[in-house]
């Protein structure tokens, strides 16, 4: 029995030692299992993040493709406009015009007819300018599509512009881009066609420090375009002055037109209720070129101007004094009383005669102090 008991105790001790060894092996396995579970969770989160990125990129890609399609549709519409303008210009080219025909025109041609012809030719020039603008817009859109395509193909992550420094940098770039587009628009109105794609290329080259033209070549090119602009503006100014004088003469022959302080005015509606120089007068003004192009329409923008009648500039003050409350008047203002030889690019050309439709919205006595 003693021997059997000793053997049993020995077997029990061996079992305990084996259990202890198994427990010792179990601990690293448990640690490895926990690490594996943690790694698995990290992989799952990474997959989830990648799926989210994929979804975001898919949405952005769809938006970019939609934008590209809209731009292509715009190019198509611009091409249609270009074709329409080309047709109109072809019709104008067939019409009699030019110095030779002007000389051959009857000397006793009615002034109204001369004004109509002048307006017709001015409209032709305007159509021609619009055609050039459409061509430039098409070229600019094609350039933008090209840049967009390159950007999209090399894009790896969305630029969120969340940091203030990023927003400031982007705002500076956007401001510079807007200024560049304003210069292009102004040049078009000055009769200078500029390749928008090459302008963008020049900006990119300047940022990379890899300019294709030397300083002397660049200065010469800028001087040449300045000379061209100067010559074009002189021609445009003389043409506008001539057409404007004919318009003024035709307007002056209309009934009830008054010429005072260098401005033609005609009362369209007298109104009711006298106003004095100290009254607060609220007006809406519609500013136009002689061909009917609207430069600014305060009423359409839900805007109005209020000040004392005597505080209005002489161009408006004297005609307004002809009116009563709620009256309206049409003004024809020669260039020397309007924007002169400089104009107001890009909308108002040099030497432009301006037309104003002014209506008194209301007039109130000055409040007592």
UniProtKB/TrEMBL annotation:
A Pfam family hit: FKBP_N
Keywords: Coiled coil, Isomerase, Rotamase
Single Gene Ontology MF annotation: peptidyl-prolyl cis-trans isomerase activity
Coiled coil (UniProt feature): 5-81
Record has Coiled coil as a keyword: yes
EC numbers, comma separated: 5.2.1.8
Domain PPIase FKBP-type residue range list: 278-364
Cross-referenced SUPFAM superfamilies: FKBP-like
Catalytic activity: [protein]-peptidylproline (omega=180) = [protein]-peptidylproline (omega=0)
GO biological process, one term: protein folding
The protein's name: peptidylprolyl isomerase
Record organism: Klebsiella pneumoniae subsp. pneumoniae
